[in-house]
């Protein structure tokens, strides 16, 4: 089945640094990618949606200058958390879908981000 | 309002029993209702999904029951196993030609199946 690979799976860094998370669709072309944030024992909160070659659409309350999203190809999207602070610590999950073929939405295994 | 309400928050079932998780929605424009299973430290995995033109869909031990008039749908896990212990999320998506048709998730149900 379709696989979405997310890297890294876990990252710890100091406050003030920027962290980049990669999301790749391995066996399909993802016309649309989604980025979610999930706090412990809570549901997934959509942060932004990106279409290949276009600027991402951010949900209300999500700082686009803080969470930079790039979807440069049909198989790769990146989320960069800029100048990360402890409150940015969370579980970030990407998801991908091929809208052209009405495929289901597939999720990566998430990235655990811990900011010290 | 794009909201999906899920219950119960947690569920404990004996091995071999039936697990039932319920969801309700308000937006009648929703036209796709998937269920996801999530293990700790992993992303959600699609279990089963249904569209509103059918009232039930079964895949193995997993069944979705859909009640369009009541705007409710539920997941039934038959012969529940300890390996089914996970968090389950219902979701809904509405058809829109303009947007990317993102999923709206329920709050999740922590299922524990006792051996």
Strand proportion of chain A, as a percent range, falls in over 45%
The strand count of chain B comes to: 11
What oligomeric state do these chains adopt? heterodimer
Tally of contiguous helical segments of chain B = 0
How is the main sheet of chain B built? 6 strands, mixed
Q: Using DSSP, what is the number of strands of chain A?
A: 11
The percent of residues in helical segments of chain A reads under 10%
Radius of gyration of chain A: 13 Å
Helix and strand run of chain A: EEEEEEEEEEE
* Count of separate DSSP helical elements of chain A: 0
Residue stretches of chain A low in confidence (pLDDT < 50, at least 5 long) are: none
* SSE pattern of chain B, N- to C-terminal: EEEEEEEEEEE
Q: Which band does the percent of strand residues of chain B land in?
A: over 45%
Largest sheet of chain A: 7 strands, mixed
Most extensive chain-chain interface: A-B, 23 and 20 residues
Nearest-angstrom radius of gyration of chain B? 14 Å
Kindly, what is the distance between the CA atoms of the first and last residues of chain B, rounded to a whole number of angstroms?
A: 40 Å
Mean pLDDT of chain B: 92
Summarize this structure briefly.
The complex is a heterodimer of chains A (116) and B (115). Helices cover 0% and strands 52% of the residues of chain A.
